[in-house]
Design a protein that fits this description.
The protein is α+β, with helices and mostly antiparallel strands. The chain has 2 domains: 145 residues, BirA Bifunctional Protein, domain 2; 123 residues, Bira Bifunctional Protein, Domain 2 (BirA Bifunctional Protein, domain 2, 2-Layer Sandwich), CATH 3.30.930. The protein contains 11 helices and 12 strands. Strand 3 and strand 4 form a beta hairpin. It is globular.
Length: 319
């Protein structure tokens, strides 16, 4: 075995590319600081017990090691968003708190040919449940991508309450709910039908089965009122997303909606989004709401933010 051989999906960054990554990282951090975000350096290690609070997905993505000092299982950081949330909690700020970060994370189960190590750069906005926080974060994301010289940005938005308001009308076991979410993410209509085949709520089942086809531009928001069973929820979602469209149009980005796009970790709530751009075969950034991540502590805390894998972006721009 070659002593210099790296594990699969791992890479060294050589000087030319390393310099570009570092310079772009500094530009992003400067942008965040200028907008009032405080820089943090989250720990690369945490006890794995705490990962369970953020959902099964994150736990599966985390490398586990045994702490030689305590014998307890530890996880190596796979997502800085959750760690930023922990730091916000420890800062004991009851009002608005804005944090940013740039650091390496490891993913234990990367998708095919995706790297194990990411350089996650992001910003998190705590303490404001209103759409103003979502808009500020989305505008900062767009500015960040432009700093990275990314052109033709498309922001693909979803509101998880569309899927959840339908799913909650059906009696699903935790296993069925998890399978339905995975099938929805893959737009696997056959599997969605199979999971729901023994349920009796025909109208809701038909809407869930057709949800993978429920996507498009701003005009699709008019169809929400006829699609969701709760008119109050439909009106609230449509109003929020319409306001986002109006506010972001001036930033020269294309806005689309995909109400079956529920990718991401299980801690997300409400408005979520992925950014796409010409020349990239997958999302260049992702973000959204994750209110009440600490609901088990009965101290509810609104939060929203986004993150970028800077290594991925520079690797694509320099090829």
């Amino acid at each position: 075995m070659n002593q210099w051989l790296l594990p699969e999906n791992a890479e060294d960054i050589f000087p030319k590319k390393a310099l570009v990554i570092e310079s772009k990282k500094r530009l992003l951090i400067d942008l965040f600081l200028k907008n009032g975000y405080q820089l943090i350096f989250p720990s690369m290690l945490e006890f794995s017990d705490s990962l369970n609070a953020y959902g099964k997905d994150l736990d599966l993505e985390t490398y586990k090691v045994v702490d030689q000092m305590t014998g307890k299982m530890m996880g190596i950081s796979s997502d800085l968003t959750t760690q930023a949330f922990r730091i916000d909690t420890q800062m004991k700020t009851t009002g608005i708190n804005k944090l940013c970060y740039a650091g390496p994370v490891l993913r234990a189960n990367p998708s095919s040919k995706q790297p194990r190590e990411l350089l996650q750069v992001g910003a998190e906005y705590f303490g404001d449940p209103t759409i103003n926080a979502d808009l500020e974060i989305q505008k900062l994301l767009i500015e960040s991508l432009k700093v990275l010289d990314i052109k033709d940005i498309v922001l693909d938005i979803n509101h998880l309450d569309v899927f959840n308001s339908l799913k909650n009308k059906i009696d699903l076991s935790p296993n069925e709910s998890s399978k339905l979410g995975n099938a929805m993410m893959l737009k696997d209509k056959a599997e969605i039908e199979n999971i729901l085949s023994k349920k009796n709520e025909t109208e809701i089942i038909n809407k869930l089965t057709s949800l993978p086809d429920f996507y498009g531009d701003e005009s699709i928001l008019k169809k929400l009122k006829n699609f969701l069973p709760d008119q109050g929820v439909a009106d609230e979602i449509a109003e929020s997303l319409t306001n986002i469209c109006k506010a972001l149009k001036k930033f020269n980005v294309e806005i689309s909606f995909d109400f079956s796009d529920i990718r991401g970790y299980q801690y997300h709530t409400g408005i979520v989004y992925s950014a796409y751009a010409q020349g990239f075969n997958t999302a260049v950034a992702q973000g959204g709401r994750y209110d009440n991540m600490n609901k088990s502590d009965m101290q509810l805390r609104p939060a929203t933010g986004f993150s970028i894998d800077l290594r991925f972006i520079i690797n694509n721009l320099l090829t």
